[in-house]
Amino acid sequence: MTEVQGVSVHLQACAKTFPDGTRALEAVSLDVARGETMVFLGPSGCGKTTTLRIIAGLERPDAGGRVLFDGEDVTHLPIERRKVGMVFQSYALFPNMSVAENIGYSLKIRGIDRAERAARVAELMALTGIGGLENRSIDQLSGGQRQRVALARAVAMRPRVLLLDEPLTALDASLRERLRAELNRLLRSLGITAVYVTHDQAEAMALGDRIVVMRSGAIAQIGTPREIYFEPANRFVAEFVGAANILEAEAGEGFLALRGGRLPIGGSAKAVKGNVVAMVRPEAVTFVAPEGALLTGRVETVSFIGDRLRCTVVGVSERPLSIDAPNTISVSPGDQVGLSIDPDAVRLFPKESA
Amino acid sequence: MSGATFLRLSLVPLAVIVLAFFVLPMSQLIIAGANGPLGLKAYAAILLEPRYRETLVNTVLLSLAVTLATLVISTIAGLFVQRNRFPGRAVLIAMLTFPLAFPGVVVGFMIILLAGRQGLIGEVTQNLAGGKVVFAYSIGGLFLGYLYFSIPRVILTVMAAVEKLDPRLEEAARSLGAGPWAVQRDVILPALTPAFIASSAISFATAMGAFGTAFTLATNIDVLAMLIYTEFTLGANIAMAAALSVGLGVVAWAILALARSFAGAAVAAAG
Ligand SMILES: Nc1ncnc2c1ncn2[C@@H]1O[C@H](COP(=O)(O)OP(=O)(O)OP(=O)(O)O)[C@@H](O)[C@H]1O
Ligand SMILES: [Mg+2]
User: Which residues lie closer than 8 Å to B156 by C-beta, 6 or more apart?
Assistant: First the structure.
């Protein structure tokens, strides 16, 4: 059911300085394509919510910044005329209205008649799996149900863009995972343009067509989940998204010289010489026999975490190396091990990126 | 000592206070009302005797008018002051809540200064229009005095309630297309309803029983508190004074109960 036609969103040099002088956002420019789900990911205070509120029309960007929906300049349009749907972390459901009245509120405001409204509300309630609750009051709902009501309310008038600010953060872990999958299905089936704010990287990976990683009011990287994970633009992104081993080493002749031996590097990185910062994901390292291995070290810790083993190995680099190994192999602390790392899995960062 | 014993022991002082300050004097008052020459008919006289009935109706109408005006003024002022930061805001809040400690006599005095024979309004109208406007000693003066008396109490309640409003609710309503009026109607006012009920109860009950202001302004105003005073001190009609006091209490209580159930129904209907 691809009923909702979203718009493309374009932010052009949107900076934000709050009246108290807080510089929440540097001039940020980005594009969200029609029907795309764009996830803003970053640590607390990096400006995710501020960016979302600028798109919504709840904040004005500093002079010079512009917000465009499908090329139309909406910078000075107040939120009530932007036709955006919003889902807040606290849901912000109206306590004086029933579930059905909450969901139908935008339709009532637009003067849509009672019968048509009821039909649309019923359709949305079925879509979000809360049929039968229409006459409940908000304080009689569970957290998960509230979340669905908030979502149904936000998409009721077929918004031009759906904005979600940490909509799952208030829920417990198992429910969060289930709702994440549901939300994903819903966003795809609606074909709606969505901007989704979270500080949970797993959520970002699962939901985002693309991810914007933010850091101190600026964009650290924009890319698909795969790009962000496998080709992080800098050390910050590498460490923020997934687990990463950061190696500071001397490069030369296609190798990184490490304390525990030599690590081959591939592709264009071969030509690099001198001091570099490199990143290796824990699952890209495999255990091999120590004899003849290019890299060797000593196992320090082994934790069994069900689907895999998380080990640390010392003597390879300055800091212990984290390794995710299959849960079938047997290693114990104290073992001397050889390590093999696919050259293509080694990512080099320019020296200046901190 | 078990928890239950402790709880029961702590109830003793409460029981003593309730008995000494509420139950005994109230029953004494009720008995006194029926102990005059009229007997129980003293209570009937409140409604049957035209002078009493008119005073009762006047007092109720005046109190309702004061409550309504106070609510409107305090809501607008409270919302504005709580939502906006501007120079002089602290001074304004201080001024709005300043009369909180004033006794009715002082409020009455201020009304005389404003609208009395030598008052400010009189002076201005004398100079501008040639006729002196004096309303301090009429129901208008009393209305103004009670208003002045009520606003600080209500505005503080409203400000506290506004502060507790979740700004996300308003933003959510706006995102759904609600303009400023719709936001007020659908989000802000419903959220403030409990505060309205509580503060209008205070405002109404205070106006029903206010005496100091009426006494200071007393020329040709009849309100219940004044009537009771007159019956008691001038007429030495203790029984009638007691009956009227009970009547005042019952009417105030009944109207508040009515308002509360009405508001409760309204909240339930909206919810
Ligand atoms: N109204 C405001 N006035 C002043 N500073 C503000 C205001 N709103 C946000 N800030 C500041 O702007 C910065 C960015 O805030 P923002 O809410 O966008 O962060 P965020 O990335 O959403 O963080 P979180 O994950 O904690 O929600 C923070 O330093 C915050 O303190
Ligand atoms: Mg935030």
Answer: B97, B100
Report the chain A residue with the minimal C-alpha distance to residue B174.
Answer: A80
Q: Where are the beta strands (DSSP E) in A140-183?
A: 161-165
Per residue in A42-60, pLDDT tens?
999 999 999 999 999 999 9
Quick one: which of B210, B245, B165 has its CA closest to B70? B210
- Tally the residues of chain B: 271
With an 8 Å Cβ cutoff, are B179 and A154 in contact? Answer: no
pLDDT above 70 (res B269): no
- Measured CA angle at B140 (ends B138, B142), to 5 deg: 75
Nearest to B206 by CA among B257, B157, B150: B150
Answer whether A101's CB lies under 8 Å from A133's CB. no
Ligand 1 lined by A53 (C-beta under 6 Å): no
- Ligand 1: centre distance to CA A48 (Å): 8
Q: Tell if the pTM clears 0.90, that is, is over it.
A: no
In the block, tokens 């930061």 appear at B85
Cα–Cα nearest to A347, from A234, A224, A214? A234
Structure tokens belonging to residue A105: 């509120």
As a whole number of Å, the end-to-end CA separation of chain A is 46
Are A86 and B270 an interchain contact pair (Cβ–Cβ within 8 Å)? no
Domain B42-270 homologous superfamily, CATH = MetI-like (1.10.3720.10)
